[in-house]
């Protein structure tokens, strides 16, 4: 076969095998090889690495899309000075993602604005980057979806869905009281995932007042029991970051106004 024919054949192999990234870089790679004369092994390895990198990137994007994070926050953006209530060592331990490998849980407790959602999302992002399947939901959403599924005869499918991700983030438990039926749905999810997959749960209620979130205190205790058995509790007791920004803005505004008054 003529060289041109071989080249066309090669391109059609790449198309058939859907090796799009290699196809895109083929001309440049061949030209580079003509000049550098790498070994056959090295040439082939470099070429395949192009496709591996593209596939990894695509899969990561897929995992991040699936995760449905409500923000782009990362661990690097966590400001420890602004939040003295945040235990850095515990955050760093969680960031190793050992808890996910161990199918253990993390409970983030603290008043509004202290960074619970940010931390949960940032840990979730780390996990997705490390190759784990992650899904973010709020407690209210989880309960609403499960309730609807039960009514529409999709209970098993939905339970399988909640069981799927290696890390399930359940945000904002406790802002709304959970009626008995909703609590039992949450219990089902937690107990099916028990020793099977990790949960990061955030709540504004200290463990002692979980009875107030749930109409049914037995269910509250059963949920806590499973979450805490292999669980890290991280309590963030500190100022609200939201209010802090608010305060800063107010102060800047006032300084500006005062400056204007003395200046003019
Ligand atoms: P919570 O979920 O506890 O109510 P959030 O995670 O929503 O609080 O935090 C409120 C806002 O403050 C968010 O924009 C978040 O990114 C920011 N924030 C909170 N804590 C920190 C922190 N330690 N460093 C940087 N930003 C923070
Ligand atoms: Mg939050």
Explain this structure:
By secondary structure, the chain is an alpha/beta fold. 61% of the residues lie in helices and 11% in strands. Strands 2-3-4-1-5 form a five-stranded parallel sheet. The longest helix has 28 residues, at 40-67. The radius of gyration is 26 Å and the shape is extended. Residues 116-117, 171-172 line the site of magnesium ion.
Category by helix and strand content: alpha/beta
Strand element count: 5
Q: What portion of residues belong to β-strands?
A: 5-15%
Instruction: Report the oligomer.
Output: single chain
Ligand catalogue: adenosine-5'-diphosphate, magnesium ion
In round numbers, the mean pLDDT is 93
Q: Which percent bin holds the helix content? A: 55-70%
Low-pLDDT segments: none
User: How many separate helices?
Assistant: 12
Work out the radius of gyration. 26 Å
Query: Separation of termini?
Result: 86 Å
Largest sheet: 5 strands, parallel
Major beta sheet, strand line-up? 2-3-4-1-5
- Shape, principal axes of CA atoms: extended
The arrangement of helices and strands along the chain is HHHHHEHEHHEHEHHEH
